[in-house]
Amino acid sequence: MAEKPNPLNSVHVNGPIPAHLARAVIEETLRNAILDGRLPCGLALRQQELATLFGVSRMPVREALRQLEAQELLHVVHHKGAVVAPLIVDNSIEAYDLRILLETEALRLSVPLLDERDFKEIEAYIDLLEIEQDYTQVGRLNRLFHMGLYSKAPNHKLLKLIEQGLVEEERFLRFNLSAMGLGKLSQDDHRALLASARAGNIEECVENLRHHLQRGIEVILRYLAQSRS
Questions:
Q1: Domain of 56?
Q2: Packing angle between helix 22-35 and helix 156-180, nearest 10 degrees?
Q3: Is 178 left (phi over 0), alpha (psi -120 to 50) or beta?
Q4: Does 57 lie in the same domain as 108?
Q5: pLDDT for 49-66, tens place per residue?
Q6: DSSP per residue over 120-142, as a string?
Q7: Are 210 and 217 in contact (CB under 8 A)?
Q8: In a 10 Å sphere around its CB, with 0-12 CB exposed, 13-18 middle and 19+ buried, how is residue 34 labelled?
Q9: Taking the CA of residue 78 as centre, how many other CA atoms within 13 Å lie in the half-sphere pointing to its CB?
Q10: 15 neighbors 60 (Cβ within 8 angstroms)
């Protein structure tokens, strides 16, 4: 009977890793592998196996796993340790509801303060999103697009919460776009958001954002319904 391939074999390490960079390199490498699907849901990540893979002690591995757990990419499971988290869970809708509350407020605060230079930078992210094929980069560009719209909001704690939510959403974004074919649709939404912001029409911009995020909620509801049936 053939041995099952180890998903960790898909993780390539350019070593040796300097000790002071070990935690950050391990975190980024594992995060990218989770986001692009190389490390599947339910996979247990053993500290010693990772330490051997990266050629480091277990301490930076432990610290990296804690960071990934804080980003909700890993869950700690009894007797298994750190496990790659499910793609979508029952509280995923709550996360989107929270995004709507936080991001519409940031949009209201930021849009009146944006200038043409800001709008051109935001538009450039949309242009890149339309041609990008790497889902890790799609997630990064999507985050930069949204944070560009909110960047002038003076409430820095609000912006920090929003960015954390966008980081956590990057993994679901890959599923959203690949499984549901929403790539073109998302960019149409983004362009509508930008147009209303550029016109200074705050309420229309807020409504466009609600509509855009509601699509994510609808995808989650369909996925959960299919999973239960």
A1: 7-84
A2: 40
A3: alpha
A4: no
A5: 999 999 999 999 999 999
A6: HHHHHHHHHHHH---HHHHHHHH
A7: no
A8: buried
A9: 0
A10: no
Structure pTM?
A: 0.73
Separation of alpha carbons 204 and 194, rounded Å:
11
In a domain, 112, yes or no: yes
User: Which residue type, as a one-letter code, is found at position 9?
Assistant: N
Is the distance from CB of 96 to CB of 217 less than 8 angstroms? yes
What CATH number does the domain containing 206 carry? 1.20.120.530
* Residues 100 and 159 occupy one common structural domain: yes
Q: Are 79 and 67 in contact (CB under 8 A)?
A: no
Nearest to 151 by CA among 200, 114, 204: 114
Segment 15-28, tens digit of pLDDT: 789 989 999 999 99
> How far is Cα 139 from Cα 207, in angstroms, rounded to an integer?
23
